[in-house]
Each structure stands twice: as C-alpha cells, then as structure tokens.
Amino acid sequence: MKKVLLAMALVLSVTFASAQSKAVTDALKAIDKAVEASQNPKKATKPATWISLAKAYITAYELPSKGIEPGFDQMLLKTILKDQKVLSSAQKTLPQGTFTVDTYSDKDLYYNDFGQLVFLIVTKPIGENLLGKAQDALLKAAEVDPKGSKMKDIQAIFEQIHNYNYEDAASYYNLGEYDKATALFEECLGNYNNKVMQKVDTMVIYNTALLSSMGGDNAKAEKYYKQCLDYGYYSEGNVFSNLAEVYRLNADTISQKQTLEAGFEQFPHNQGILVGLINLYTATKEDPQKLFDIIHTAQENEPTNGSLYYAEGNVYKELGNIEKAVELYNKSTEIQPDYVYGVLSVGVLYYEQAMDIAEKADSEFDQAKYDALVEEFNLSLEKAIPPFEKAFSITDNVEIKKNAAEFLKFIYFRFRDKSPEHMAAYEKYNAYLAE
C-alpha cells in the first residue's frame, strides 16, 4: 500500500511540475510571438503590437510570484503553491529582523514570527530585464502613436511596471542588499521620468538617496537628496539632516553647516538637525549660543508655537542641562496646550533617568549605596507620573495615548501596593491597553 501511495505522489509531483513547466514554456512562446510581430514591418507601425509585447514581458515577469501576496499565511501559500516543492526551510537574520525562509526552485519566501509573508525574492526569473524590455516596448508604442490613441493604456502599464520595481526594491532593502535596492529605485524613477509619463515620485527619490547612503555611495546620495530639496520634499526635515551627514562624511564642513542651518529654520523640532548642529558646533569649537540665537529668533516670530520651545529643550538635553530641558518642555505645552510632545518628553526624561539609576543599582554591591539608588530610582519614576498623566489626558492621538499608558502601567505596577489609588491607576491603564 505504501508503495502505491508513493507512486501516486511521484505521479502527482511530476504532473504539477509539468504544469509549472508548461506555464513557463507558454510565457516564453508568447514573448517570441510578440517579438516576431514587432519585427513585421506592417505590424511594427501599430502601437497595439508593442503594447502586446510589453504585456508578454510583464506576464513572464509575474509568473514566479503569481498568486503570492505579502501578508498571506505560510500554510495558505503552501496550498496555493501545492504544485511547487519547498526545497528547504531555514531561519535567516537580516537587518530588518529574523525570518523563516522557504526556498523554492525559483524564489525565496520570507515569513515573520507569525507565519505571515513579508516579502519574496525571485531567484530564477524567466528572463533577464523583463520589466526593462517591457518599458522599451511601451516607449516604442508611444513613438508609433503620434495621435495618442493608446496613451492611457500605455501609461497604465507604465504604472504597473513602476509598482513592480518599487516592490522589488523594497524586498531587496529588507534583504539588506542596498545596492540592488538602489538600482531598482532608480528604475522606478525612470518609469516616470520619460516622455510618456513625465512624472516625479519624490518618495522614490528620497528612498534612492537614503539607500545610496546606506550602501556607501555618497555621491549618488548627495545627488538625490539635492533633488528632494529641489522638488520641495523634506521628509519632516530628514532630508536636511541626511544630506548634512553626507557632507560630514565628505569632510565638507561648510556645506554641512549651511544645510543644517537651512533645515533648522524650517524644521526646528527635527532631532537629527538639532543633534547635527550641536555636534558640528562642538567639533568646530563654535559657540552653541549661535544655535540658541536661531531658536530665539524663531520664538519671537512665533511666540505661540510650542515646538520651538520643545526644540530648545532638546538642545539643553543634548548639552546635559536636564533641569533647563524640563523647564522648556513644560513651557512648550503651557503656551500651546494641545502640544503634547513637551509634557510627554518630561515624562520620558524622568523615566530614562530612572532606568539609568536602575542600571547603576544592578552593579552596586554595597547595600547602603544600593538602597539609596533604589530610593532615587523610585523618586524618578514618581516624578514621571504627572507629565505622563497629563500627556494621556490632553491628546487625541491614539498612538501617543497608548505610549503614555504603557509607561504609566509599568510605573503604577511597581507602586501598586503603595496605596489603593496606585492599584486603581494600574488597573485603569491596564484595562485601557487591553481594549
């Protein structure tokens, strides 16, 4: 009986493998047929011929990942891919975390701890540069279509190619292959920056700059960060701080300073810009008062802008003046009652102080000193309660509310036996987070 079952399994595997092989053969035949049509002098003058060729290339590109979507469950995908054998399954640690990798003959599927597909890498495409060839065919279709009768169809396929290149770039980013991801993001830019589309994707420009920098290509990173600035894309000020870091690596202190100061004028709350300026002034032995002068000028222009006092508090924190930082964090919320980040930062600052004290206590063997540190630890946690309570009460932002509740739950849990009020507070925030 076992021999019969084994024989049936072998027959089925051969059948499924044959089905997969047939799909590949059909896709290649479709390309050959479309190429042949494009070489026919009469058919080559018709945009539909080139559109068909582009679609044939795209169909071949799609085949290895057909039916697969991020978020799918591992067992579901094994069912969907029942005609394809998992050659191996292993754990792999990448820059973005640890994944379970199922390896097939033509692709690797990367699952998270919950068994959900995060991304895939096609390891054996049906052909080389299929999306690039599809784009070339579309450009030819537009060339032989001077009246633009098929322009909407051509543009729709360009969008499809752009999205595929973006997805592949993101996958290689997850894989930690930044050079490959950068090249694919540049393909995305080319999918838009042509005579047919004439579009700009600033997010892709930023991603290209960021990954170029991560891959060590500072020249390319500088080029694309500058393009971001030209198009008015700032990523909340991160473009300035990232470009300044490129200049720092290139030992271009003048450009670094100009970029940081220009960024600070527009995004005084950006931590990367603030830290960059402080480090620059420290390295060049310039007076940090210049930074405060910039902040104070901004405060005079916008006296009710809480973020400007929050920014000044961040500077004092970086300089080690915690008392002044707390004063300015509180002031930021006082002058702008709905500005939650100031009071929230006071709570975080006291909490961080408590964690630093706890670390010291862990390595202290003298009982008296240990007891003193524990008392200091408790005092810091208690000082964090009022600002966290206020942050929780004044914000409608669910994520900020959850963060404040997490801190408060931890603190009140430690003090739950201190009083019925402390226990009630612990139960309140525990119940909130449970919802």
Task: Break the fold down into its secondary structure elements and pairings.
Layout: H1 2-38, H2 47-62, H3 74-80, E1 88-94, E2 97-103, E3 107-111, E4 117-122, H4 130-143, H5 151-175, H6 178-192, H7 202-214, H8 218-230, H9 238-249, H10 253-266, H11 271-283, H12 289-301, H13 306-318, H14 322-335, H15 340-362, H16 367-394, H17 398-414, H18 420-434
Antiparallel strand pairs: 1-2, 2-3, 3-4
Helix pairs in contact: 1-2, 2-4, 2-5, 4-5, 5-6, 6-7, 7-8, 8-9, 9-10, 10-11, 11-13, 12-13, 13-14, 14-15, 15-16, 16-17, 17-18
Unreliable residue stretches: 1-18
Could you tell me the radius of gyration in angstroms?
29 Å
Instruction: Assess the beta-strand content as a share of residues.
Output: 5-15%
Enumerate how many helices there are, as a single number.
18
Provide the helix percentage.
Answer: 55-70%
The chain-level mean pLDDT equals 90
Global geometry: globular
Structural class: mainly alpha
Describe the fold and architecture.
The protein is mostly helical and 435 residues long. The protein has 18 helices and 4 strands. Strands 1-2-3-4 form a 4-stranded antiparallel β-sheet, covered by helices on one side. The radius of gyration is 29 Å and the shape is globular. Mean pLDDT is 90; it is low at 1-18.
List keywords for this structure.
single chain; 435 residues; mainly alpha; four-stranded antiparallel β-sheet; 18 helices; 4 strands; 6% strand; globular; disordered N terminus
